[in-house]
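[Meeting: bench + compute handoff]

Bench side (C.D.) handed over the final construct sequence. Compute side (W.E.) agreed to return the predicted structure before the next meeting so the bench team could plan truncations. Sequence as handed over:
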Amino acid sequence: MIEPDLGYDVWNGPEHCFNPLNLWETQMSLSPGKLHPKFVTDPRDNRTSVLLPLAEYETLLEELEDLRDALDAQGEPSIPWDTLEQDLGLK
């Protein structure tokens, strides 16, 4: 989970609005609660950098790319799954 002391505000909006954060939380395998960050601090204990295990970093990059693709596809026509299955001969 994103720590509240970082100052991030998330507007979830009405249910009918597209919210990429909801997409990430429901469809992506690596949720923020599954990350194992280590924070680098300055002499005043202010966080300046984050270290992640390499596998988590690579997974996070892939999921961010997937999220970007979902945002780019927003508003494009979609094909119902049943139709796609039929077109591909899977049914």
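W.E. noted at the follow-up: The chain is about 40% helix and 10% strand. C.D. will use this when planning the next construct.
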